[in-house]
């Protein structure tokens, strides 16, 4: 007997698969000061994003009383949720009735992945020379190796960056060059076989390395960056449809990642004139440049 999968179950599978892809592709954003708010905003379009700027105040000598002139405690900045990206789906009645090979899991994953790609490229569009200054490294992927990593580390040490929380985000070509590096491939040298067995880089020169093929060039040959969390401030929050809009929808659902709070929304409605069911999966977010001294660009030329 054939098993009929309900439309509600299919929708849940689509949304859950889209959320998995979304979270995976947006992994580089966890390196920054990012807030994933799962509760719809009410009365405001802003979210306070906390961050910890580099401490620059001089240490004081006790002189009979404590003086407080701290300008570098916990800070926060309001980020406006003004970005709204979506992936659309539409089917005619005939198409919906004649899809014996419809795979909701695959469809959701593909749509979620593409949505995440465009969001990540949008956020990283802020990484420019005007915002963060001169590049810390210039060179082609074919010449990039662990010696370059050590040179970058040394430059950051001289700049008095804290040794914790340093992240390097690299284009996959540069990540691949590091995976070929003899010193990294040698499991005995790094104490881990992850580079060979899993294609994952261990921590190198104090950096957690994240490889991605989604770094925008920004017309400046950008291929990567080293950063502290306060370099970019990012906020996500769902925006529910207004009551009148919701009354005209056939469905409104959302799925939230329990660990991060990242939320994807789904809206569906029918168009009787074209005999089409239309739906979108969308994410609402905003971002801004953070502390300009907390990010250094890596460029190819």
Distance between the termini: 62 Å
Which structural category do the helix and sheet elements fall into? alpha+beta
> Could you say which overall geometry the principal axes of the C-alpha atoms support?
globular
The proportion of residues in beta strands is: 25-35%
CATH fold description of the largest domain: Major capsid protein gp5 fold
Order of helices and strands: HEEEEHHHEHEHHHHEEEHEEEE
Number of helices: 10
Gyration radius, rounded: 23 Å
Detail the poorly predicted runs. Answer: 1-6
How would you describe this structure to a colleague?
The strands form three sheets. Strands 1, 4, 9, 10, 11 and 12 form a six-stranded mixed beta sheet that branches. The radius of gyration is 23 Å and the shape is globular. The chain is 29% helix and 28% strand. Helix 1 (7-25) runs parallel beside helix 3 (104-123). It has helices at 7-25, 93-97, 104-123, 129-132, 146-158, 172-180, 182-185, 187-190, 194-197, 243-246; strands spanning 33-36, 46-51, 75-80, 83-92, 137-138, 167-171, 208-212, 222-227, 232-236, 251-256, 263-271, 276-289, 295-299. It folds into two domains: 7-52 and 71-125 and 233-288, Major capsid protein gp5 fold; 131-230 and 291-299, hypothetical protein PF0899 fold (2-Layer Sandwich), CATH 3.30.2320. By secondary structure, the chain is of the alpha+beta class. The model is unreliable at 1-6 (pLDDT under 50). 32% of the residues are buried.
């Amino acid at each position: 007997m054939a098993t009929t999968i309900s439309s509600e179950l299919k929708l849940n599978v689509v949304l859950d698969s889209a959320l998995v892809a979304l979270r995976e592709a947006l992994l580089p954003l966890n390196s920054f000061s990012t807030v994933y708010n799962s509760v719809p905003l009410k009365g405001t379009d802003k979210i306070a994003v906390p961050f910890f700027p580099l401490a620059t105040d001089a240490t004081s000598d006790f002189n009979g009383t404590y003086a407080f002139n701290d300008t570098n405690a916990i800070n926060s900045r309001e980020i406006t949720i003004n970005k709204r990206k979506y992936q659309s789906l539409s089917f005619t009645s005939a198409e919906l009735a004649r899809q014996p090979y419809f795979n909701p899991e695959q469809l959701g994953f593909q749509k979620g992945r593409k949505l995440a790609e465009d969001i990540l490229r949008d956020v990283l569009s802020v990484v420019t020379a005007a915002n963060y200054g001169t590049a810390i490294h210039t060179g082609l992927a074919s010449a990039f190796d662990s010696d370059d990593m050590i040179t970058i580390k040394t430059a950051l040490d001289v700049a008095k960056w804290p040794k914790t929380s340093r992240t390097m985000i690299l284009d996959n070509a540069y990540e691949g060059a590091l995976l070929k590096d003899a010193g990294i491939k040698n499991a005995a040298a790094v104490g881990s076989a992850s580079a060979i067995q899993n294609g994952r880089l261990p921590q190198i020169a104090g950096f957690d390395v994240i490889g991605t093929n989604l770094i925008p060039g920004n017309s400046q040959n950008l291929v990567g960056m080293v950063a502290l969390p306060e370099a970019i401030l990012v906020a996500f929050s769902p925006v529910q449809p207004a009551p009148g809009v919701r009354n005209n929808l056939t469905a409104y659902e959302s799925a939230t990642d329990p660990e991060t709070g990242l939320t994807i929304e789904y809206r569906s409605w029918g168009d009787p004139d074209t005999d089409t069911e239309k739906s979108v999966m969308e994410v609402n977010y905003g971002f801004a440049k953070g502390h300009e001294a907390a990010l250094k660009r890596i460029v190819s030329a």
